[in-house]
Amino acid sequence: MCGIVGYIGDKNATPIILGGLKKLEYRGYDSAGIAVIEDGCIELRRDVGKLTNLETLVKEEPLSGTIGIGHTRWATHGAPSAKNAHPHVGETGKVVIVHNGIVENYLELKEELEAEGAKFNSETDTETIVHLIERNLGSTGTLEEAVRQSLLRIKGAHGIVVISSLEPDKIIAARIGNAGGVVIGYGEGENFVASDIPALMEYTRRMSFLESHQMAIVTKEDVHIKTLDGKEINPRVDTIAWDPVAAEKGNYRHFMQKEIHEQVRSLTDTLSGRVDFEKNQINLMTLNLTAEKARAIQKIVITACGTAYHAGLVGKTMIEEMSRIPVEVDIASEFRYRDPIIDEKTCVISISQSGETADTLAAMDEARKKGAMVLSIVNAIGSQAMRVADGYISMQVGPEIGVASTKAFTAPLVDLYMLAIYLGDLRGTLSEEKKFQYVHDLRIIPELAGECIRREESVKKVAEAIKDIRNILYLGRGINMPIAYEGALKLKEISYIHAEAYPAGEMKHGPIALIDKEMPVLAIMPKDQWYEKMLSQVEQAKARGGMLILVASDGDENAKNLGDHILWIPDAPWLLMPVFTSIPLQMLAYHIAAIRGLDVDQPRNLAKSVTVE
Ligand code: AGP
Fold it and tell me: Which residue of the set 22, 94, 435, 608 is catalytic?
């Protein structure tokens, strides 16, 4: 979604803002803009398309000043165009704003403002905010107060950053609800504002995060954080430890490929500090769970979106198997509107890479309102999903830049597996032998993940062979059924090939009618308790002439005889198998998209963090 960067200090704000926006490109955008205060006046440059267009414009028409704001926009109201791109300046030309979110009552506000004589220059909802601020500036006299009064008028969730040539010594930033984060970065004689951590990592590691209904008044020397009703807050300043090099592409062609390869390390990091092989223990201290609290849980509801939801589906099998707590898995955007049956004996677990997905955060709010215990499994440190939960597991995979999630899928699978053991242990549902086995099985994860990745060349050959397909059906069963969903999602989001996924047992109830020579079938059939069932499904597809691509365990003779193409995987314990069946499917999707010459890291219409409904 939209990216925001702001700077105030003694340096030229332009390269800092453009550099910061570059670090947010992965979020997806369709236009970009920058505003700085130059010689007491607001100077604005905006353009559609990639940031390079804006950079070219800034070269042709340079602007410099020591305070400024910038934005990458993902259109919600009004087409992608230079005039709809942010920042937006008001009629007086003295106030300028960047905004992330949707003004839900903008039509009503626009009508009111137009009736008062306001002239709108764009089709955006954002422009209403700058008109409101200008009007309030007239009556309140200070930018801080004008912003506060204006925020009280707009409905919805928002992150906004404002500067004014009338008060050129400050940036005002504010957050309402879950429309993405607002991060304040602390420098020496300079300070920063952004929507996300990576934008600021080159300049500072010291950051604090605005909560909902808070605003920050940022000068080059100071940061004051207040609630919207004026109460001063003493902000917590976190030191962010991510390595900025990790956010660079290195020798890889795309971030997605780099992130697939990083999984040996990310899965090692996932285990570090959590597993004690000597003592046969899992330690998930950040969950803040006691045996008493764990025993009181009568139901778990996992809620998430997209890839994170698929991880939740795998987690259901793991948790039910090891802790015997019934688990429901719900798509967060559905959960929030369904009046779900949950109470204080329910534990709601949200899974999110960004920790800022609006639907997931709203589901957490809903769970909290109903008195449930709220936990999260989250990657972005300091994100809202981490902060508002009663306890959390940090994915520890570092920044994930590619829009298509890979390492932030396999890590929560292992987190959920560890959580299942942990709950089983706290509740006393796990025998010592079983616990030993489950804990012990964790050892092989990095090695087996590495083995899957080493087979990339053979996956690439399959990608070459099937790169021109137009449709494909993914099938899986049991714990690998969600991997069929995830594999299909990966393929469609980056290669734009129509991919459908089904639990294999459902084929006979309808989808089998689709299978003919034109409809390839990808079946996930490792040697586990569902193997025989999958085999008969695969045979039926073969009989109907469909091309077969199989994800099969090394040495499987049946697969060898039936499959047109095989993605071999090493043998592994069944509960952990999804980690290894998913990796070849990530590589397959990646190589098909890369061979087709597509924008793998920023696929069309998609954003890395979906901070609007
Ligand atoms: C993953 O490949 C997708 N781009 C998408 O489904 C993503 O998983 C979903 O939007 C949820 O994001 P989150 O994990 O940041 O909450």
Answer: 608
Residue pLDDT, tens place only, 343-361: 999 999 999 999 999 999 9
Q: At 517, phi and psi to the nearest 5?
A: -60, -25
Name residue, tokens 């990592």.
201
Where exactly are the structural domains of the chain? 3-244, 249-452, 456-595
Contacts 24+ apart (CB under 8 A), 118-126: 118/91, 119/91, 121/83, 121/88, 122/78, 122/83, 122/84, 122/88, 123/77, 123/78, 123/79, 123/84, 124/77, 124/78, 124/84, 124/86, 124/88, 125/76, 125/77, 126/77, 126/86, 126/88, 126/97, 126/99
Q: Is 608 a catalytic residue?
A: yes
Q: Kindly report the average pLDDT of the chain as a whole number.
A: 92
Q: What is the pLDDT of residue 247?
A: 57
Residues in contact with ligand 1 (CB, 6 Å cut-off): 305-308, 352-354, 357, 360, 403-405, 493, 606, 609-610
Pocket test for ligand 1, best of 195, 605, 610 (most atoms within 8 A of CB): 610
CA distance 404 to 396: 18
Out of 3.40.50.720, 3.30.530.20, 3.40.50.10490, 3.40.50.300, the CATH code matching 456-595 is: 3.40.50.10490
Could you confirm whether 2 is annotated as catalytic?
A: yes
Q: Do domains 3-244 and 456-595 have the same CATH topology?
A: no
Topology of domain 249-452, CATH: Rossmann fold (3.40.50)
State the CATH class of domain 3-244.
alpha beta
Q: Using CA positions, which residue lies closest to atom 10 of ligand 1?
A: 306
Across 297-326, average pLDDT: 97
One of 2, 305, 347, 452 is an active-site residue; which one?
A: 2
